[in-house]
Amino acid sequence: PFQLLEIIRKEDVVLRAILTTHHHWDHAKGNEELAQLFPGLQVFGADDRIGALTHKVTHGQELTFGAIRVRCLFTPCHTSGHMCYFMWEDDSPDAPALFSGDTLFVGGCGQFFEGTAEQMHINLTQILGTLPKETKIFCGHECTVRNLKFALKVEPENEAVKEKLAWAKQRDDDDVPTVPSTLQEEFLYNPFLRVTEEAVQKFTGRTEPVEVLRALRSERDNFKKPKERPNPQAMLAFDWGLFGPFLEKK
């Protein structure tokens, strides 16, 4: 939570509440410590496994924090208690925002750790996919380049995928975020939102949307991992022959 504490100090704001998407440590680990530092802190979520949980929310429940309005959207699959948060301000020119945790990513979707393809299909088509197209998508991880490399494998002729991948690679090189995207953009290049497209169906060998999604997720799970870059110091030592005494000739 130390980065968050620094942001709170820098922005001169008071932490009143935490909206937690799911119980995994990389999304909820700091809750307990923050609750100790801020007595009375409210922690919202849909899973009893979330640390320091004080308010259990349900699908469609609306919360208000000052001018910010929040609608809780239950999206079980990655975990059985996953909740997304749709936020907006009335009469604001800013686009609404979706904090999608590990359900919807830029160019991808979350793994089905505790759920089914049927659940994820409902999440993506009926719950998240029907939000306003201008909604900004703030997902829980930066895995855009890898997601889009897979999307290009699925649809090698998709120009939107090619353009977004080139853009994301440049962002990565510059060490700046690729998040957020918009929901409208996601429908152009995210294969998990394009299960009715002929090219995506051809790639999976399926036509029924849930089966297409299931096959896509299986392919994505087995998508080759990027090669690890060798440690530059180790390579330099190797070039200088410093490992010589430790290497045996065959």
Whole-number average pLDDT? 93
Distance between the termini: 51 Å
Please give the number of β-strands: 11
Q: Uncertain segments of ≥5 residues (pLDDT<50)?
A: none
How do you describe this structure in short?
This protein is α/β, with parallel strands linked by helices and 250 residues long. It is 37% helix and 16% strand. The protein has 10 helices and 11 strands.
Written overview of the protein:
- With 250 residues, this protein is α/β, with parallel strands linked by helices.
- It folds into two domains: 1-56, no CATH class; 63-224, Ribonuclease Z/Hydroxyacylglutathione hydrolase-like (Metallo-beta-lactamase, Chain A), CATH 3.60.15.10.
- Helices cover 37% and strands 16% of the residues.
- The protein contains ten helices and eleven strands.
- The chain has a six-stranded mixed beta sheet with strand order 4-5-6-7-10-11. Strands 1-2-3 form a three-stranded parallel beta sheet, with no helix packed on it.
- The chain starts with a helix and ends in an 11-residue tail after the last helix.
